[in-house]
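ENTRY TYPE: paired fold submission
RECORD: A
CONTENT: sequence, then structure tokens
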Amino acid sequence: MQSLDLLKRSDRILIALGVCAFALAISRAEPSHWAPASNNHLLNSLLMRAFTTIFGISNLSVRAPALIGAAIYIAACFGLCRILSHRALIRIPLFICLIFNPLVFDFFVAARGYSLAIAFLTLALFLTLRPRPPANRHWTAGLGPSLCLALSFTANFSFAIVNVIAGVLLFAWTYRQRNAPRAKRGPLLLAWIVPGVVVLILLPSWTVSQWPAGQLWYGAASLSETFAGLAEASTFQPNPHLANPFVYASLHRIRYVLVPLVCLLALACVTINAPRRNRSMRIVYLLVAMGCLTAAGHYLAFKLFGVLLPKERSAIFFVPIATLAIGAAAAIPAFSALQKNVRPLLIAAMFLVAGYYLFCFRLTYFRDWQYLSDVDKVYSVVNRYIHLNRGRDIPANWRYVSSLNFYRTQSGSTSLPEFVAVKDGPALSQRTARLCPLLSIRPPIRRPPKLDAPLSQRGNRCGRGGD
């Protein structure tokens, strides 16, 4: 048995050495993934480098890290729904609200670090809240959550405060649940600290130490702007291809009522059962404390250091925390007549929100980069135009340059020069401006098309725009 254990340990060492060797081989190329910049989501960049090195550049290889994050997030949410309630009437709408929230769903496929960051944060919650056998070793209770929270921060630095708050609260939860004896408290604390510190030293330490001023420019100036932006992004927007005109108009009318309605009903359930102590109530208190302390930490950083508050995608971590808190509130057992009346209303509101989210399902564009949804088609047109006219001057609006150059690299074209970014205005040549409005004008704000309008009045698709 000892030889088998040694063999297992040696296998782990060999696997770790192999991973390190592969990482070093990848890093022999230009190591731009370590660059200290707000648009460099470190863990996502490292994995993108690995996948594009192995499989070449394609839409799938650059989005593979985000898809992995989506798979981890969905699995963790599935486990959390099973933990919070055994009733299908609660599990089903809660799972849909966690997965199909338009803000969250966008970043399942966007080549950014938000998917991995929110996935590891949710996985840390699952690993902490799941039931554990009493004979389980104390140090294993903190190993997984510690690694997950460190990887969440590595995936996106805007998760720094929520990861610290989550680490403290989840450690306190584990410490109380396991009721560790005095001799085991030290190993439990070390298990929560050491793995995460090792990950932070190996991955983001240099990037954070070299971080320049002025990078954190995207954010909100007040907490009301933060939460209003989250509500706006979480209800954007019903898909006119899925909802008929009557349903589409009805969904738009209730759009700004859904989030306050569910939150008020959940607050009512918690207030009614405040004197009682059960597992669902303790989970609600844990999640509410996590959200409130995170908001307070960001507000303190804003007041003391001028760091803008998180906004929309940089505040995406509030979405699963709030949604899970609402689901836990719905799972509180009904002990009073008032609770028996309020709880069905909350579950019905959750089903209403879940149905709304399903009608928001879309595959052709992201909310933040809607103006880029047709860039692949535009690149084909530009490429053909340049070759037919032997043109060399390819200036473009700066919003489209990186996407156009991606398709240029993916195509393997050597005759087509790189696209050059210019500012808004008349700086583009008239020849290029005539080619397509996409290359010369600022992207317009698009509103949902009128379904009864003729096709000729629904706008030119050349100026519309995904990631």
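RECORD: B
CONTENT: sequence, then structure tokens
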Amino acid sequence: MKSGAAVPGRKRRTTSGRDTRTRRPRLHAQRRQQRHEGSPHRPKTPRPMRDAVQLIRASGGHLGDRADKLVDTLDAPHSLRIQRAVRAVLASEDTSSVTRVDALDDLAKRMNLQPYNAPEPREPITDEDVHVVAWSALVPA
């Protein structure tokens, strides 16, 4: 038998002496739990929306308080149709940045865009929530 070869039934050890087989499933279980149990993370904001937010923060001072609301409205995961419209406004190179900010404000009003509200996390499922729908039995022939 070669030295360093895996022996059935033996735990693999790292250089630090910890078992590698028990660490990985625990890590995957933690990630799965974060993903499914009301994670506080927001969905990722698409690139055109991030670019629009950056433009508003840089050149939207003339809007006053509306700039903050517009940033909250655009910093959200919108549909592809809205992303295309925002991308078209941002791509107009012949206009000034102030004009593009005004066009984004007008677009948000026309499409009735709303600020992103995170959904309420669901309560964990308990034993009382599980009900038997049907029983099945196997009968030997």
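NOTES ON RECORD B: Helices lie at 20-36, 47-59, 65-74, 80-91, 97-110. Residues 47-110 form one domain.
STATUS: closed
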